Amino acid sequence: MTAGIDAPASTPPEPAAPAPDPRARTAPGRASATRTSQTGIALRSAGRSLAGSARSLAAGLHRAGRAVGGFAAPVTGVISPVGWLVLAAGVVALALAWPLGWIELAFVGATLLAALLVAVPFVFGRMAYRVGIELQPRRVVAGERALGRLVVRNVGDGTSVPSQLELPVGSGLAEFVIPAIPAGGEHEELFAVPTQRRAVIVAGPAASVRGDQLGLIRREVRWTDPVELFVHPVTARLKPSAAGLVRDLEGEVTKTITDNDISFHALRAYEPGDALRNVHWRTSARTGRLMVRQYEETRRSQLLLVQPTSAEHYASEEEFELAVSVLASLGVQVIRDATRLAVATDRLRLGTATPTALLDDTCRIAPLEDAAAPVRDVVREAGRRIPAPSVLVVVGGSRAPLAEFRAAETVFGSDTQVIVFRTEVGAASRIARVGESTIVTVGSLDELSRLVRRVRP
């Protein structure tokens, strides 16, 4: 028997390698993306932190700068712009003299700084003044003369030193040299105020000035408050009740029918809910059915005076001033007639308590350089806080289209009568009827009284 050869033991088959997971292949990329995202978040957080720190530092520096500036203001405030320029030039000249080796620059820098130092003693010293400003009169018509009086009184114990006093008057500046004034004494200066045009002229505040002759250092002390001078527009004198255009004593009758008023209108059949006090018993007995009274609604006269002030509506400055004069003339007479009145422009609502209050406010009317607002919008805004007027008067310029004035008819109801005064310097004055509006062309203020008398609303 042949020896058998042992057969090698059969080895089990090796397990198959698992299929690669696609998610496992992308894991390193995702980890990298996660790390990048975390890095971005960290960088953004650090950036926000740095930005917040920078803002806090800037705010702190700003507060510190304001504190230092406020502390140094009594010193730095007396240095004029010319003085700051001289100081900067001196410092720059000295800073460049050493590296460049120019003795001339050093000399220039030293001279400029010395000039600034020499000017310092001129600002020292105190003055014990009591200053007053008087304007006579406080209200004038354009073209009339107005005078001002400046009174300086020394309330100190000793004689004052000579000084300089500056007084702004409108757009100008009046300068007065005040001599030495003994204790308890006073000095006065007279000055004229230009009043050729309608305006509110502000005089003051009066300020004493101390400083050097070169103007490097300047110290001002204010002694008064501003004082206003009202230069009223030229107005035309109108006859009583001519400008009111509504001459009723108890009220103006409207087209609105009501069940309770004083102006009897008609009778109608009784309806449930009617008040028995309105039953007309004699007619009811004759007709055999209840009849009640109807009335026309009455109301107190209310006039609305409006002036659109856009510069586009006026051919010249003289035309604008003529329109203001027409507005003031009509408004003053309506106030004297004791008719309820509201006056407004694009941006200004004028006082109507007294003629003086109205004239004072007309001094503040100025042409608007902005884009022209529609006349209808100006009228609507002016009538927003008042009852519907019985008469609407619009004062405008020759360049405003007639269609814009006619559009104002739609703001209020049919009970409101619209009258337009168009100013056109040098034009022939006339009255025309356009739609439901009365158009009055005013060529000069002298003709206004005659035109108003001819207006029939």
Automatic annotation (TrEMBL):
<dbReference type="InterPro" id="IPR002881">
    <property type="entry name" value="DUF58"/>
</dbReference>
<feature type="compositionally biased region" description="Pro residues">
    <location>
        <begin position="10"/>
        <end position="21"/>
    </location>
</feature>
<keyword id="KW-0472">Membrane</keyword>
<keyword id="KW-0812">Transmembrane</keyword>
<feature type="transmembrane region" description="Helical">
    <location>
        <begin position="71"/>
        <end position="99"/>
    </location>
</feature>
<dbReference type="Pfam" id="PF01882">
    <property type="entry name" value="DUF58"/>
</dbReference>
<feature type="transmembrane region" description="Helical">
    <location>
        <begin position="105"/>
        <end position="129"/>
    </location>
</feature>
<keyword id="KW-1133">Transmembrane helix</keyword>
<feature type="domain" description="DUF58">
    <location>
        <begin position="267"/>
        <end position="353"/>
    </location>
</feature>
<protein>
    <submittedName>
        <fullName>DUF58 domain-containing protein</fullName>
    </submittedName>
</protein>
<feature type="region of interest" description="Disordered">
    <location>
        <begin position="1"/>
        <end position="38"/>
    </location>
</feature>
